[in-house]
Design a protein that fits this description.
This protein has 229 residues and is of the alpha+beta class. The protein has 2 domains: 115 residues, Ribulose 1,5 Bisphosphate Carboxylase/Oxygenase, CATH 3.30.190.20; 83 residues, Rossmann fold (3-Layer(aba) Sandwich). The protein has 7 helices and 11 strands. Strand 10 and strand 11 form a beta hairpin.
């Protein structure tokens, strides 16, 4: 069944017929002009990456520190030993626990967006892999979510650290701000995102790494950006 487009969206498409590739600054202005939903729409970036090395598909998964965050509130849970409970609570985490948190997760109670675990508690995570793994919420030392420095990890997430990873077709998407953000903050977040991505370019990838780049809002149409690697 063909999805019916709303009158609001059809109007946006009509207003945005001139969608030639433009600069970041131009795209932000057009996107904000088209943001007419009744909430503070997110400003989203989506990219098609060259992740083919000969016949091998390469995966990319890393962290990006957005200097101004993306405007989304992240509920953080910390799984730690009893001796670190108070430290975890003082870090700003919304949910803190030990064996009780393990049992809650095992029973399907997932009332958080990010889970941080201390190394000492990882031995208890085995039975949670089938629950957290498919949701992409399993703590990972490479992504800073398995650590003894709970305070630092929670602060990084609260300050705007996001995780990105490509899908099977080499696409990556993320929110880099809100309509209410000043243009300068969106631009600075964008630059941090791109700089991090380019540093993560796998060795052996030939040609352009970023094949295409689009900017859009939650309820809006997308605009292709001029970009050269």
């Amino acid at each position: 069944m063909k999805k019916k487009l709303s009158k609001r969206y059809k109007n946006l498409v009509e207003m945005s017929k001139d969608k030639k590739m433009g600069t970041l600054e131009e795209a932000i202005k057009k996107i904000k002009r088209n943001c007419n939903a009744k909430f503070d729409e997110s400003i989203d970036i989506s990219l098609k990456l060259n992740l083919k090395k000969k016949k091998e598909e390469v995966n990319l998964r890393t962290l990006v520190n957005l200097p101004h965050g993306n405007g989304k509130k992240v509920k953080v849970a910390v799984l730690c030993e009893e001796s670190k409970i108070n430290e975890a609570k003082d870090s700003g985490a919304e949910l803190v626990g030990s064996d009780n948190l393990v049992n809650d997760i095992a029973s399907g109670k997932i009332n958080f967006d990010k889970l941080i675990s201390t190394p000492a508690m990882m031995s208890k995570m085995g039975k949670l892999g089938k629950i957290l793994g498919p949701k992409g919420m399993m703590p990972n030392p490479k992504l800073g979510t398995v650590t003894s420095d709970v305070k630092k990890a929670v602060k990084a997430i609260k300050m705007g650290q996001i995780e990105i990873k490509n899908d099977k077709d080499g696409n990556i998407a993320a929110s880099i701000g809100k309509k209410s953000f000043p243009d300068t903050k969106i631009i600075e977040n964008y630059k941090s995102f791109i700089e991090t991505l380019l540093k993560e370019k796998p060795k052996g990838i030939k040609g352009d790494f970023i094949l295409s780049l689009f900017l859009t809002s939650t309820m809006g149409v997308s605009f292709k950006l001029k970009y050269k690697t």
